[in-house]
Amino acid sequence: MQRDQVPVRSDVDDIFDQHATLRDILRDLGERPGLDRELELCEQLQTMLIEHFELEEQPGGYFARVLEDVPEAVGSVDKLMKEHAGLTVHAAEVVRAIRACLDGPVADVRARIDELAAALSDHERREADLLADAMFNDIGGLG
Predict the structure, then answer these.
(1) Which of these, 10, 34, 58, 91, could form a disulfide with 46 (CB 3.0-4.6 Å)?
(2) Could you tell me if residue 95 is left (phi over 0), alpha (psi between -120 and 50 degrees) or otherwise beta?
(3) pLDDT tens for residues 74-110?
(4) Residue 39 burial by CB count (10 A; 0-12/13-18/19+): exposed, middle or buried?
């Protein structure tokens, strides 16, 4: 390559980069980072899958190139391409389910946690006030 030539990225390079990102997302999801983070990851995954599958399926894309080199892989390629629609729908369903959970049961549990924390904080404040009063009034030999 001459000095003034810039290497051109191909769709295959983009696909390989996306595969690495997909593996990272799947690893992070496997660590169960909590529903808020899982929602972020699944939303990212949902968006990414659409572009990723388009790159793989487009004329001259990844699958077309595979079939140029390995024409006998047509059955495997067809099966993988048919799975794309189902995986895209599945990702959207998971995002909806997480949102429903966060807006419903998880929101209720978090509200209960907030109520408990507020009640306990109030209880602790009143105990501290009682101790301060006791020390101020020299009750029980504390002062």
Answers:
(1) 91
(2) alpha
(3) 999 999 999 999 999 999 999 999 999 999 999 999 9
(4) middle
Does residue 21 sit within a domain?
yes
**Can you read off the two tokens belonging to residue 122?**
């109030």
Q: What is the pTM (predicted TM-score) of this model?
A: 0.73
- Looking at residues 2-29, what average pLDDT do you find? 79
Q: Is 46 part of a structural domain of the chain?
A: yes
- Interatomic CA distance for residues 49 and 25, integer angstroms: 12
Sign for the pseudo-dihedral over CA of 15, 17, 21, 23: positive
Share of the chain above pLDDT 70, in %: 89
Number of structural domains in the chain:
1
User: Has residue 31 been placed in a domain?
Assistant: yes
